[in-house]
UniProtKB/TrEMBL annotation:
Domain Aminotransferase class I/classII large: 26-375
CDD domains documented for this protein: AAT_like
Gene Ontology BP term (one): alpha-amino acid metabolic process
Name of the protein described by the UniProt record: PLP-dependent aminotransferase family protein
Molecular functions per Gene Ontology: pyridoxal phosphate binding; transaminase activity
PANTHER family: AMINOTRANSFERASE, KYNURENINE_ALPHA-AMINOADIPATE AMINOTRANSFERASE, MITOCHONDRIAL
Listed cofactors: pyridoxal 5'-phosphate
Domain of life: Bacteria
Keyword terms of this UniProt record: Aminotransferase, Pyridoxal phosphate, Transferase
UniProt keyword Transferase, yes or no: yes
Length: 383
């Protein structure tokens, strides 16, 4: 049977290919986006799972919008205004998919920063959106270019990751957050604020969400993959009720609801007094790993390469002289180091700059040392 035309144009997910190469025990992987499993709050999870085993009701079918007690908790935790609605999703990735299916017809314009999150490009590509990109600078998207883009393309959505962007690690400045929100209001574009890394800040000041400056023109995606555990597959989508209702309809057709036992488990976690400490330990570990990586990169990166400093999240973006980044990543893999070449983070038509995305959360300091030395050596010979 022939696969659908919409799928024919999608290349096999590079994420899967990277994770496959990275699972080779002889390869040091800076490629995946895996949280460090030492941060999973197993001391809370183990007894909570045993307790939940006694609760028959959570093993029955549940509500599409989510497990009521968890939703109540999240409305308070994130101080959602009274006119906002939240729905639990199977990871924030499902939230993205539901938004695409509920709102995007083929050729509808969706704007993103370039480079952008691979999973978002895949979702919007599958629904045959016309993906248009705007260059990202150190403060976030180029505001003048964004306004021109809104004027020329009349997009439905602007997809963004303002806190510790994947792949660049960039955190939008306050001025950029306000300016983007103002443009979304002015041109009636819905801002999709994807915030899986927001709570992984290890230095600097937390900034208000961009969506808080345009609450009626935004949808927020949150994830518990990076602050609890990705295997739970729990995320949340929230926004003005009229924006969320269509997503509930699509989710009914997609999976009826997300796993209720996993939602109940997440609630146990969030309600546990030691969860805040777990989160602090998590960010402290990532701060140490980032500092180690940044220190090694300073030592080993040849001239012409540049590391963008980050204040949180899981990735750094190392700019390299213009080159074939796929070939560079291949050479590194031959030396036993997996990285992600920048090209995969751009749609085919976008202007690309050469860089490597490096993950700093999931590799020991010892392996980081070896990997960065090898990156330095390969860059010196190839760039
Ligand atoms: C920017 C971004 N959005 C969404 C996701 C998906 O996360 P989840 O595990 O919540 O589905 C990821 C995963 O790495 C991501 O980087």
């Amino acid at each position: 049977m022939q696969i659908a035309k919409s799928l024919q144009q999608i290349q096999s997910s590079y994420i899967r290919e990277i994770l496959e190469a990275a699972s080779n025990p002889n390869v040091i992987s800076l490629a995946g986006g895996l949280p460090n499993d030492a941060t999973f709050p197993m001391d809370i999870i183990k007894p909570a799972m045993a307790k939940l085993g006694e609760e028959l009701a959570i093993f029955q079918y549940g509500d599409t919008a989510g497990y009521g007690p968890l939703l109540d908790h999240l409305y308070t935790r994130y101080q959602l205004p009274a006119n906002q609605k939240a729905m639990i999703t199977t990871g924030s990735q499902q939230g993205l998919d539901l938004i695409a299916r509920a709102y995007i017809d083929p050729q509808d314009c969706v704007v993103m920063e370039a480079p952008s999150y691979l999973g978002a490009m895949q979702v919007f590509g599958l629904c045959q959106a016309n993906i248009v990109t705007v260059e990202q600078n150190k403060q976030g998207p180029d505001i003048e270019a964004l306004e021109q883009c809104f004027i020329s393309n009349a997009p439905k959505l602007f997809y963004s990751v303002p806190d510790f962007h994947n792949p660049t690690g960039v955190c939008w400045s306050l001025a950029t957050r306000k300016a983007v929100a103002a443009l979304c209001e002015k041109y009636s574009v819905t801002l999709v604020e994807d915030a899986p890394y927001r709570e992984l800040r290890f230095s600097g000041e937390t900034l208000p969400m961009a969506s808080s400056f345009c609450p009626d023109h935004s949808i927020v995606l949150r994830s518990f993959s990076k602050i609890a555990a990705p295997g739970l597959r729990i995320g949340m989508v929230s926004g003005k009720e009229s924006l969320i209702q269509p997503l509930i309809k699509v989710k009914q057709g997609a999976d009826l609801h997300s796993s209720v036992p996993m939602q109940a488990l997440l609630l146990e976690l969030l309600n546990n007094d030691s969860f805040a400490q777990c989160l602090e330990n998590n960010t402290a570990l990532y701060r140490d790993r980032y500092n180690k990586m940044a220190e090694e990169l300073e030592k080993h990166l040849p001239n012409g390469c540049e590391l963008t400093q980050v204040e949180g999240g899981m990735f750094v973006w190392v700019k390299v002289p213009q080159c074939d980044t796929f070939a560079l990543a291949k050479s590194l893999l031959a030396e036993g180091v997996a990285v992600v070449p920048s090209d995969v983070f751009y749609p085919p038509s976008a202007a690309k700059s050469s860089a490597l995305r490096l993950n700093f959360t999931n590799c020991s300091p010892f392996d980081l040392d070896i990997a960065i030395q090898k990156i330095g050596q390969v860059l010196r010979t190839q760039c």
